[in-house]
Design brief:
By secondary structure, the chain is an all-alpha fold. Helices cover about 90% and strands about 0% of the residues. It contains one helix and no strands. It has one helix at about 5-35. The longest helix has about 35 residues, at about 5-35.
Length: about 35
């Protein structure tokens, strides 16, 4: 792989993990709200 491809893949992985993190937070938020009812 070229350096460009490596850095693009790294960026892609970062975005994926951030997105996953936000989805986890969203699920956690829903869980907390459900328990509060």
């Amino acid at each position: 792989m070229s350096d460009l491809q490596k850095s693009l893949k790294l960026k892609h992985d970062e975005i994926i993990s951030e997105t996953r993190h936000f989805e986890d937070l969203d699920c956690l938020d829903k869980t907390i709200r459900d328990e509060g009812n």
